[in-house]
Amino acid sequence: MSGVPYTVEVLDKLRWNAHLGKHKHFEAGARGRTHHVSYGIPIILINVLLGSVLFAFLGDDKAFPQWAKWGGAVLSLIAAGLGGVQTFFNFEKQYMEHRAVGNEYLGIARECERVLALYFDGLLSLQALSHNIEHLNAKYAEVNTRAEALTVRATEYEAALAVQQRKKAEETSLLERYTQSISSDLATKVSGGG
User: Considering the entire predicted model, what is its pTM?
Assistant: First the structure.
């Protein structure tokens, strides 16, 4: 037995999942932002171009050659199509919602870390830790419910998981440090040093 209460392991798992949720929604938010910009900039440029040409030849009915009229019509249709796609999918709202959900997951992860630190420092009892988990699980469930309306692609999940695993390899979590401390204390007592 590692000496780590199961309640602590549950809280650490919640912390892990909340960080993973943060990363996947930030990835999805970046996708939405890219789409928003990719569709929005051409719309603006086409409209500026058409507006400039129209003002340049305003009042001169014979100033427009046939190709310019057709070119302007095609560009207007393209701009309208891009605007329709952007309006239908509402990329800006989507990426803002992904960012908001990601930040809520981050808040839960940070609260998990704070509660774990309080427990490891002896400032919080196991029973109080259990009550905190109930509250944090309820918050996590609320965020999950909001997140159901948002699309996260498998590639975004995989990218988020890669970030989480890289962070795990680079940083020692509170639980890992606590477990190492318990193992070290136990080894010292077994060898007769304590």
Answer: 0.76
